[in-house]
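ENTRY TYPE: paired fold submission
RECORD: A
CONTENT: sequence, then C-alpha cells
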Amino acid sequence: MAAGSRLLLLLPWLVMASHSPPGCKIRITSKGLDLVKQEGLRFVEQELQNITVSDLHGKEGQFHYNISQVKVVDLQLAFSDLHFQPQQHLVFNISNASISLCFRRQLLYWFFYDIGSINASADGVHIHTVLQLAKDEAGRLKISNITCNASIARMHAGFSGTLRKVYEFLSTFIVTGMRFLLSQQICPSLEHASLVLLNSVLDTVPVRNYVDEHIGIDYSLLRDPAVSTDTLDLDFKGMFFPRARENQELENHAVEPVIKETERMVYVAFSEYFFDSAMHAYFQAGVLAIELQGEKVPKDLEVLLRATFFGTIFMLSPAVDAPLRLVLQVSAPPRCIIKPSGTSVSVSAFLNISLVAPGRPPVQLSSMAMETKLSAKVFLQGKALRVQLDLRRFRIYSKQSALESLALFSLQAPLKTLLQLTIMPIINERTKKGVQIPLPEGMDFTKEVVTNHAGFLTVGADLHFSKGLREVIEKYRPAPTTPAYPSSRPAEPSMDPHQL
C-alpha cells in the first residue's frame, strides 16, 4: 500500500520528465497548408506526367498486337484537396481528373501489317493518398509511410490507319489493358515522390548545425508532430551548444510556448530557454569578453580614468605613461526575460582596468562589477531570427568596499557612453547574422509580426515559395554515376511483324 502511494506521488514527476518542453515550436495552419497544396499540385502533375507504362502485347486469334512508347501528353487535375487528419497524417485527394496519352501501335493480321499511333484519354481518375508524418532517429521530420488508392472510371482511344476498323473491334480489350496498366503505375509513382523526393526536401531543414565558429543549434524534434483538424504542431528542442562541447545539455525549466492563434499561415514560438541557451553556449565558449587597449580606449575616457586613479598611477613611476587596458568580462551566463511589455537581457560582468607597460606585467588599477539590463528587439528577416540589443540600465560598484563604489560614481556616465557607442555596436555586429529557422529550402516568411507573451514570444507570418519543389529536389539529387563502359543505345521498337 505504501509503495503504491509513493508511486502515485512520483507519477506527476515521471510525466513531466517524459515531456520535455520545446525551446522552439512551429505551427502550420490550414491557410499555410493551402499554399503547400498549390505547390504540391504542380509537383504531382510533374510526377504523373513522367509515369512509365509497360508495353502491352499479345494476340487474339490471328491478331497479334504490340502497344509501346506510352507517354502522358496532358493532365487535367480538376478537383484536389489537401487537409490535416489527426493524429499524424496529411490527406491528399484528386477527383475527376483526366490523363491524355499517346502510344505506338503495331498490328499483324494474317499477312496485313499496320503501324501508327493512338491517342487515348483516361477520365474519372481518382487518387486518394494518406501521408503519415513522424520524426526519424535524427529528430528530423519525415514522411514515414504512404497509403495510396487510384482508380480510372473510363478510358477512350482514337484510332487511325489502314486497320482502323480492326482496332475499333479490339478497342475494348486494348483499352481495358491500358487502363489497368496505367492505374497500377499511379500509386508507385506517388510513393516514390513522397518517400524519396519529398523527404529529400525535408532533409534541407536544419536539425543540428553550426551558427558560427563558436556555437551551434539543435533543432531536433522532441516528438512526432501533433496534427489536429486545423493545425500541425512541431516541437523542436531549440537548444544552442558550444562547439567545443557539442554533447553538453542545458536543462529546460522555462515556460512552454503555447500557440493559440490560427489566423496566419505559420507561427513560430521561442521560449526564454531558446535565448538563454544561446547566451549560455557563448559563455561556455569563452567569447563573452571584450578588450580595449591603447588607441581603442576613447580619449575622453582615458583622461578621466587617469585622473580618477592618479594617486595609484603616480606611485607606479616610471609606468605613468603606460597605455591603459580595459577588459570587460561577463561573469555569469546572461538571462533573458520575456514579458508582454518587451524582452530584456540581464548581464553581470567585471571591468578590469590596468596599465600595460611594454615588457612589464600588467598593473591592475581597479576591478569593478557591472550590472546591466539590455532591451532586445527580436525580428525575423527572411528565415533568420535576429536580435538587436540596446543598453537600458547600467550600474557599476566596487567589489572591495562601499567607499570605493562611491569614488567610482563619477565613472558611471562615461562608462555607460563607452558601452553605448563602442561595446554595443560590436555585440550587435556579432549577432547580425542571426540564426536560421527550421524551414525547408525554398520556403520563406513574409509579413512577419512578433508578439510577446509571458515567458515566450511568437512570430506570426505568411509563407511563400522562393523555389519550387522540383528545383530544390534537382539541386540535391545525387549526380548519376558514369558507367565504366559506354552503354548501348536502347533498341528501337521492332518493325518486323514476325517479332510481334
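RECORD: B
CONTENT: sequence, then C-alpha cells
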Amino acid sequence: MSGNTDTSFAYTPARTEARILCASCGVLIPPNPANLCIPCIQSTVDITDGIPKQSTVHFCRGCNRYLQPPNYWVVAELESAQLLALCLKKLKIGGTARLVDAGFIWTEPHSRRLKVKVTIQKEVFASTLLQQTFIVEFIVAHQFCDDCARVEAQQTWKAVVQVRQKVPHKRTFLWLEQLILKHNAHKDTTNIKEMKDGIDFYYAQRPHSIKMVDFLSAVVPCRSRGSEQLISSDIRSNTANFRYTYSVEIAPICKDDLVCLPPKLARSLGNINPLCLCVRVSNALYVLDPNTLKTAEVRSNVFFEHPFTSLCDASQLTEFYVIEVQQENVRNSKYALATVEIAPANDLSQTYIIRTHLGNVLRAGDHAMGYLLLTSNFNNEHFDALSANPSTASMLPDVVLVKKSFPSRRRKNRGRNWRLKTMVKEEGEEGTVGRKAAVDVQRAEADYELFLRDLEEDAELRGMVNLYKDPHGQKTRPAAEDDMDDDMEDIEEEEEADFPEISVDELLDDLEGMTIDDEEAA
C-alpha cells in the first residue's frame, strides 16, 4: 500500500447553528443576549415610549407660513424637506434611540392632517438593537403670524414718516420719488399714501422709519421731529406698544426760484446780494447772484434758523427774446457774466438791458425764461426793505433771467424715447369732484411736464435719477402731421441746434417691465 490516502470518501460533518428556546414563548431562535424572540421583545419593550404620536403645527393662512418655535415663521410646501424637518423637531427622541428614516404619508390637502412615518433604533438589552416603525399624526392649526395679525386688526404699521413741503407744486416730490426709486429706499414700506402737501411712508418696524428719515436728511434740506402714541401696555410684564410718527418738513425753496435773503443771513454768507436765484437743491440750498456770479450755500440748520420764502417760482416765468449779448469775461464754474438786451416775446417794443449769468449759453436770437420784476408786486418784508432803501433800490434789476428756452422744439410737440418709473401710491385723502378735480389733474400734468423738461435741460440733475428706454415711445412727428391750427411759419421754423438731446447711452433697460414681444424685438 502506498503512503497516499484517498480523501474522496472522507467524512465531513454538517455544520448546524445552535438554537435555543425563547424564554417567553418557547420558539426556537438563534441565541441572543435577551434569550427572547423578536415578537416577544417587541411586546415586552416599546422603544417608542415617550415619543408623542400626535402633535400640532401652526399654519398662517395669511402668508402661507409655518411656525418654527419659538417665534420664527418659515415658508414650506406640503411634503417638502423643510416641512419634514419642522415636524421632526417636535418629536422628542432622546436617550440611546436614533432616527433612521422618516417620510410623509399622503393625506388630503384639505384634511388639515400631516402623517409622518418614522423609523427609529434603540439598544434594549446588552448588544441588542431593536428597530421600530410608527406613524406620527400632526394636526395643522390655524394661527396668524404677527404681521398678518396686525393686518387683520388694521394695525398694519408701527411707524410713519410724514414728508411735507408747503409749495403750490409737486416738482420737488417728483424729483424725490426718483431718488427713492434709484436707491431703493422704499423697500421696507408697508404702504405709501399721497397727501395734499406731501407723502406718507408707513413701516412695520421703527428702525426702518428712522432709516428713511436719515435718507431724506441726506438728499433734501429738511428738519424732522418725532412723537409716539401709546397703543397698549402690560403692567405685569412691564411692556408697552407704541406707534411712532416722524414729521419731515422740506424747505419751501425749489430750483429756479427767486429768493430774497434776510439781511443778517446775507451778511453771514459773505455779504452776498440778498436778491438771489436758487440754482441747485440737495441737502443744502445753493444760491447765485446773477449780477456778480457770487454763490453761497445755505445749509438746512441755517435755513430754519433764518427762514425765508421764494419771491417767484417756475409757474411765473415769462418768455423773453434775446436781441443782443455782450460778454464781460467773468466766469464762475459753468456760468458766465454777460450784459444782454431782451424784450418780452409778446411785446418786442419794450426792451430791457440787464446782466445775467447765462452768458455762455445765450446768443442773439435765442429765447430765455425769466422773472419780470418791474411790474411785479411782492408781499415780502425783506424785498420791501430793499426797495425802500435808495442805495439798494437802484441795484434791483428789471428782469432776472433763469434759463434758456427752446420754443420751436417745444411747439412741435416732440415725443420722448425714454420714461421714468413711479412708486405705487394710494390716495390718502378723499378726492375732489367736478371742476376742482379737473384743475388738480391739469396742474399735476403740468408739473410733471416741467419736471421732464428740467431733466432734459440739466445734465447734472439727470445724472441723479434713472432713465429707462421706452420701446413704445412716440417718434418724431413730421411737419405734415402737426395740428392744423399751427401757422405754416411755425411748422417751417428751424429747430434750435443746441436743444438738449438725451442719448441712448444714458438710458437703462427696464427688465422688470419687458414683455415677450419686447425681448424678441431686442
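NOTES ON RECORD B: The radius of gyration is 40 Å. The first strand starts at residue 20 and ends at 21.
STATUS: closed
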